[in-house]
Amino acid sequence: MSTPFRRVWAWPLALALLSASGLFSALVSDTWGDAWSWLALGLPVLVMTRCSLRRSQA
User: Fold this and answer.
1) DSSP 29
2) Transmembrane ranges (predicted)?
3) Does residue 52 fall inside a structural domain?
4) Which domain holds residue 33?
């Protein structure tokens, strides 16, 4: 059974950690860090766009 806290905050926290790691990687890394930062910063945008489009269709 999941707790209400986990049910509400699991995805936002995961996306926040992903974004933070992408920002940190973009600042301090080169080569592989550039690829990771693009992925880590682009994925939350894709998730939010998908959720927004799905909500507007319903």
Assistant:
1) -
2) 35-53
3) yes
4) 14-57
Please give the tally of structural domains in the chain: 1
Structure tokens at 44: 């939350």
Count of other CB atoms within 10 angstroms of residue 56: 7
40 assigned to some structural domain: yes
Residue 43 located in a structural domain: yes
- CA separation, residue 17 to residues 11, 12, 55, 56, 57 (Å): 10, 9, 24, 27, 29
Q: What is the pLDDT of residue 24?
A: 96
pLDDT in tens, 16-37: 999 999 999 999 988 899 999 9
At position 32, the amino acid (one-letter code) is W
Question: What's the mean pLDDT when you consider all of the chain?
Answer: 90
6 inside domain: no
